[in-house]
Amino acid sequence: MRSKIFITGTALAALASLAPPTRAAESITLRNGFELQCHHHAEVDGRVRLYLTAGKDNYIEFAPTDIAAVQQVPDPPPQTQSPDAIPQDESPKAPSEAASLSSSATSSQPTHSDSSLSPADLHQMLVTAGNEHNLDVDLLASLVKAESGGNTRAVSRTGARGLMQLMPGTAAALGVQDSFEPHQNVRGGTAYLDGLLTRYHDQLALALAAYNAGPAAVDKYHGIPPYRETQAYVARVIHEFNRRVLARQTPSLQTPFLQAQAHQTVASESAPQSGTGR
């Protein structure tokens, strides 16, 4: 069960590739009501793969029962423009910017903070998103901490945005219209992580590596890519997740012991004392 994912120890894995989709051709509605856009989909080994590009490397995977509807996206009307004009979303980019999915908090450059989002508001967003995808809220909180430090306006050096550091192309494929809007960003990032966990059979380290470096890199190396930043990222998220899980488990584990100690203390103090006494 996803809510029980828990890994101890140090994991290894940081930035590589997930190219933005060329153009969405299908709109996918999940059972939880969330909508995603993809280039095309296919059923492989009993699972539904949503391909974000025309190729077969960049995809997220869901169980067939998670898919509620599939609709074709109509072609956009032709636009008249100068032959020399370059569309804004097709302007030349540095290879790392075009390839990178997300970035760790250490590479995020916050533009300004959003004081309207309190820790309680963020927690509730993560709870809602976690319930929709059966993901542990502490896992999502650990990812947000590593990605943006909770800054809704965080922007990485490669252009990843918001709480869960979504690249523009990835955000568009996930149906996120404004990556700086916390609810949209959290829902999109959670849906993406859910798809990666399904793709990698709930192997958290691989899903996190793919979230950071792109699934193509994970598939290329048949595991966590040998990128120092990715290895540090995966280890950091898992360490924080472990810390949070242990913190919430410790009180419940200690309570019976403390109660027993208290009971023994009361009993010993109230029992008759042998000897002469004072």
How would you characterize the overall build of this protein?
The C terminus is likely disordered. Helix 2 packs across helix 3, helix 2 packs parallel to helix 5 and helix 5 packs across helix 6. The chain is of the alpha+beta class. It starts with 25 loop residues before the first strand and ends in an 8-residue tail after the last helix. It has 8 helices and 8 strands; from the N terminus they run E-E-E-E-E-E-H-E-H-H-E-H-H-H-H-H. It is globular, with a radius of gyration of 23 Å. Strand 4 and strand 5 form a beta hairpin. The longest helix has 43 residues. A 3-stranded antiparallel sheet has the order 2-1-6, with no helix packed on it. 41% of the residues lie in helices and 13% in strands. The chain has a single domain, classed as Orthogonal Bundle (Lysozyme).
Give a summary of the structure in a few sentences.
The protein has 278 residues and is an alpha+beta fold. It has helices at residues 95-99, 119-133, 137-147, 168-173, 182-199, 204-213, 215-221, 228-270; strands spanning 26-30, 35-38, 40-44, 47-51, 59-62, 67-72, 108-110, 154-156. The protein has one domain (12-74, 97-248): Lysozyme (Orthogonal Bundle).
